[in-house]
Amino acid sequence: MNSLHTSSPSGLPPGLPRIAVLATGGTIAGEAGDAAKTSGYKAGVVGVDKLLDAVPSLSQVARIHAEQVASIDSKDMTPTLWATLCARVNALLALDDIDGVVITHGTDTLEETAYLLHLTVKSDKPVVLTAAMRPSTALSADGPLNLLNAVTVAASKASWKQGALVAFNNQIHSGRDVVKTSTYAVDAFRSPEGGALGWVQDGQLEYQRTVVRPHTLQTPFQIAADLPTVEIVASYAGVSRVAVDALVAAGVKGLVIAGTGNGSIHSTLQQAVADAAKQGVVVVRSSRVGSGHVMRNGAAPDDTLGSVTAGSLNPYKSRVLLMLALAAGTPPKYMQSVFDTY
Ligand code: ASP
């Protein structure tokens, strides 16, 4: 039997779930010299112990095992850190005395990490990411309540088998769907097509819909530090084919096109995409719009271009899936079915 050898603080209510809090940095761990400052601070500098100390009522919700996995601004997230984080999550969730994991993260790439973990964590136990829009030193910092709510979500049996979740601003989102939609607002996260899965407030939570697409144990995907190179190119008025040609020459394995509208691609870029696909690069057609889905042979002839459509995944989430699918050795002819499934 696997177990975790860390001491539990005394005096805790017996029988509380045991939740591992893995800190990676971000604004939730940010510090500014001035409490009135909500921008221009340094992200990822406050340690996990201090984050937990700011939320004394956590001890009423769970027994906490804390680890500092990284201390970065999430704009600097890397596949290597993804691999480290995912391995740690999987190792902790395999322990009998860990009931769930909470990850504190920066908001900038949270939607990418959440989807990556949704596809690569191998457990039914809850994995809940949270973050903050205001640094820990700010007036009305949102991090402490987000952290308390994330632990509440991770400690709930109702959160099992839902894949990676994001608890933010009293809402619970699926890691597949959630995206950052504001540069400054504390309600920065939305799930544009399906909406939030539910809510969490004052120790209570409710799920109003469940996750339909396969995730975690139902996927074949594994994270590796050396994921195949996939880059993103946008289509816009007057775009040239220079970027696509340069990336193909550099040996990329996949390209995601952030197309206009329903994933439409400028005629200049369409020729470049067709040429890239002929050379074995897998091209996924997504949209830069921010909501909605991209239909096969809708705004571009995928059968002719050799492209795959992303459905409701935005370009950044499409890149995550394409990297994992390429790493899993998915033949190009099955790539559309991968995007239709996950
Ligand atoms: N740049 C920060 C980060 O992603 C932003 C945040 O956390 O809100 O780490």
UniProtKB/TrEMBL annotation:
**Cross-referenced InterPro entries, in alphabetical order?**
AsnASE_II, Asp/glu_Ase-like_sf, Asparaginase/glutaminase-like, Asparaginase/glutaminase_AS1, Asparaginase/glutaminase_AS2, Asparaginase_C, L-asparaginase_C, L-asparaginase_N
**Residues binding substrate:** 74, 107-108
Q: Which residue spans adopt a coiled-coil conformation according to this UniProt entry?
A: none
Instruction: Read off the PROSITE patterns from this record.
Output: ASN_GLN_ASE_1, ASN_GLN_ASE_2, ASN_GLN_ASE_3
SMART domains found in the cross-reference section = Asparaginase
Which residues are catalytic? Answer: 27, 107
GO BP, one example?
A: asparagine metabolic process
Give UniProt keywords alphabetically.
Hydrolase
- Provide an example Pfam family for this protein: Asparaginase_C
Every copy of the Asparaginase/glutaminase C-terminal domain together lies at: 230-339
Question: Could you give a GO molecular-function term held by this entry?
Answer: asparaginase activity
The chain positions of domain L-asparaginase N-terminal read 18-211
The similarity comment for this entry is: Belongs to the asparaginase 1 family.
Protein name as catalogued: L-asparaginase II
